[in-house]
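From the thread on structure requests for the teaching lab: each student submitted one protein with a one-line request. Submission from student K.M.:

"Model MarR family transcriptional regulator from Arthrobacter hankyongi, tokens only."
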Amino acid sequence: MPRHPGADYPGRDLMLILQSFTTETDRYIEAMGHRHGLHRTDLNAVTAVLDAAREGRQITPGVLGSTLSLSSAATTALIDRLGRTGHMNRRRSETDRRQVQLEATDSARERGFEIFAPMVDELLAVVEQHSEEEVRMFSAFIQELRDAMVRARHKGLAEEGGSGAA
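Reply posted by the TA:
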């Protein structure tokens, strides 16, 4: 069903709420990142490296650049900046010494906690007002919406002939 600006359609109110939630999340992250001297791209880079580690994957500068849709030069500058602030380390792969892998430092984890703990506390206060079943259903729904966003990004990039993170 095609959408037109200002048109009413089933789910429109939910789309507007999600848009508002995303906007407020972005405002929070921008404000807190600024307060702690980190750019949004810095936070996204550290998050990507931490996510990879949590999933048991190694992440290289090339993969990070692709994930963040950055050029090689911009990725190098980003990693250098995070290295100077003590938030990221480069290390040689144990299996292929030619390959460089990235690691977030304890400092990055501590800074991330300082930045995101107030947000998480507020969100958990809302989550705790709902039953386990409601939270389980909502979690599945949000995962479906996240997956739809990934598909939309891929579709949009394919239509424009662009490239972007997988």
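TA comment: The chain has a mean pLDDT of 91. The helical segments are 12-35, 40-54, 61-68, 72-84, 106-127, 132-160.
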